[in-house]
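From the shared-data thread, chain only:
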Amino acid sequence: MPFQPVQQEKLAQGVVRQIELLILRGLLRPGERLPSERELAERMGVSRPSLREAIAELQAKGLLISRAGSGVFVADMLGSAFSEALITLFGAHDEAVFDYVSFRRDLEGMAAERAARFGSGTDLKVIDAVFRKMEAAHSKKNPADEAALDAEFHLAIIEASHNIIMLHMLRAMFDLLKEGVFYNRQQMYRQRTTRDQLLDQHRAINAAIQARDPVAARAAAEAHMSYVEQALADVRKADRNEDIARLRYQHELARE
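Structure, as tokens:
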């Protein structure tokens, strides 16, 4: 973690400011454990009493939580982004699902463009490393791992976009996706043809970002989300046809 020695100002306030910025920029993630008190004090160049004062202030602000015997963690501040009633409503209606995909297409196209333009060398290495893991999972025919890495890949791009509002907004949306609120990503990875196409699409996104081609990166990200939208539409159409066929069959049985 990129903790730095605190410069001149009240030491506790310097610690507070630095940890707030790390959380804001997404470098400290919800649920992430901070280093031990001794290690953190040494890395930030402050006394342990000053560090404790800062941690207490951050806890009072709801940014950090302390777990007995486990340490201090970044609080999950996104848990209340949507009410339970609204989350249930999202999952029950196709309109919300397709609006979600459309929303992601717009924002992830922008994120990919910004990552190609503004991402650091380290950012691009992280994106490439996640993609290489996706390739490995693909070759092992493990759809569950590949689906999880799909989310990690997109989040790495969003982090590389260096837009903090976009980062926290899409993290909240991805949390709902992980819970299967909008659709089950693993279902999309069950068919070999779909998996091959998704990997090729991620490869195109990664290649454009690594080449620092903002236009190509945006186009590749938007094309990927358009494919996801069509795949979901096809799945729902097939499900409706199955339901109709089942009802007809039951009707025929009832007439006999």
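The CA atoms of residues 141 and 192 lie 9 Å apart.
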